[in-house]
Amino acid sequence: MVEITETVLRDGHQSLIATRMRTRDMLPAAERLDAVGYRSLEVWGGATFDVCLRFLREDPWERLRLLKRAMPKTPLQMLLRGQNLVGYRHYADDVVEKFVAEAAREGVDIFRVFDALNDPRNMETAIRAVKKTGATAQATICYTTSPVHTLDAFVDLGKRLAALDADELCVKDMGGFMPPTEGGALVRALVKEVGLPVVVHTHSSSGMSTLTCLAAADAGAVAVDAALSPFAGGTSQPPTETIVGALHGTALDPKLDLHALADLAEYFHTVMDRYRPLLNLRSLQTDPGILMHQIPGGMLSNLLSQLAEQDALGRLTEVLDEVPRVRADLGYPPLVTPTSQIVGIQAVINVLTGGRYKQITGEVRDYVRGLYGTPPGPLDPELKRKVTEGAPAITGRPADLLPPEFEKMLGEVRALVPAADTAEALSYALFPAVYKSYRRSVDHGLSGDVLTTAALGVVGALRAPRPAAAARVAAPAAGSASGVSPWTHEGRARLQSQRRWVDASRSRSRR
């Protein structure tokens, strides 16, 4: 038997409608979802935290509480970006520990912990914190292909994660290009060599995801991720009903009621109808090109948005060619948040400036210096020399450079909201400017606009690309090429400003 993790309340809508599903549209289906018999329901993490505060003007903690109250039987699951939590930078260990403890207290039963570089050092504090709460620590291997990402390397990574006391492993195919044969071989090797339960998460971008899930199940995966059909396909997960139907009557039968799933699908069709202005055709289309360029759908929409801002959509092909070159220069990082943004923005700048690394973003500089972790492969020597001649590289765990932050953040948020509790302090610590804006809206009785102008602008760019004009480079404030380090207070504030175009256009964050 293989079990199903249902993603309709998190990655399904993150992938297709920019994470805009409101809590009020989730709750009417909660009792039925809880009765299906899923292994778990992914309901939190990824981009949901940021979007709740920034766009929906909802309290993400309250969403978690309400969902837990409405679905007490089925384990609730979240996606946690390791030391990045649900943000876009490393946070100090005390913030990580507080966040995990609070999330477990409020209802998270399974924490899927990943790091964009597959660096176990960036996962160890989060995994240790999860274990302390008694919740399940699901350590993640971000799947990608490159000269350094081999079957043996992935198995070795699985062993290192097991040594951190992880309860189970997840193979995360965030781009949707893991073939069935390779997926099956990887699961089989992890089960045999590491000995932990293995779950497989993939996306339907290339059209192979259903086949890959079936192969993974046959190879010994204990569960696969799927989304109810209205929020499945394309850049989302394969349809739950399809997986269940394909395995019905076999030894791997998930034993879920297709009639109950059809009833839920009918409800979520009505939900999708309300958010249809945010849905773009490209996110639903199969894109075999991802097998070659490995650019996930969310990263592609970000590239389109950046180029649209520069009237340079006609240069997309050049950028798509440049992305693999930048990725190779940076040691072949998996393309998932935040490395997909780091690689993508630098590729755009390389193309629009007419020269490779004429301008180097602050994020690339920090990456090369080791502030994001250890790259999977060797860096381009010339790029490394260019960056480190003015600022030496580090070799230790990046978070060791960060002093404790929580008490300082607690004091700051209580200066704004005297009765602020731990959850509110954590929201502030993760997104200070966004939290302040959220509080102002709440205090004035304002609600968020789901169909934001920024989001609709991105959809328009995807549907009807404009003819390219003369390329021009973004100003430093918008293009994050200022060189200010996000590891300082000033740099973090600047980084928030520089990434507005990413946040506004983000339709998924690969977790």
Task: Give keywords.
8-stranded parallel beta barrel; 8% strand; globular; 511 residues; 51% helix; disordered C terminus; alpha/beta; 8 strands
Structure description:
The two termini are 26 Å apart. Helix 5 (93-106) packs across helix 20 (422-430) and helix 19 crosses helix 20. The protein has an 8-stranded parallel β-barrel, surrounded by 6 helices. Helix 6 (124-133) links the parallel strand 4 and strand 5. The chain has helices spanning 8-17, 23-36, 48-56, 60-70, 93-106, 124-133, 151-163, 180-193, 209-219, 240-247, 258-275, 281-284, 290-293, 297-309, 316-329, 339-353, 362-369, 381-388, 406-416, 422-430, 432-443, 453-463, 476-479, 489-498, 500-505; strands at residues 3-6, 40-45, 76-80, 110-113, 136-142, 168-172, 198-201, 223-226. It is built from 25 helices and 8 strands. By secondary structure, it is α/β, with parallel strands linked by helices. Helix content is 51%, strand content 8%.
Give me the side-by-side strand order of the main sheet.
1-2-3-4-5-6-7-8
- Biggest β-sheet strands, sense, barrel: 8 strands, parallel, barrel
Report the mean per-residue pLDDT as an integer: 88
The assigned structural class equals alpha/beta
In helices, the fraction of residues equals 40-55%
- The percentage of residues in β strands lies in 5-15%
Query: What is the alpha-carbon Rg in Å?
Result: 21 Å
| Shape label | globular
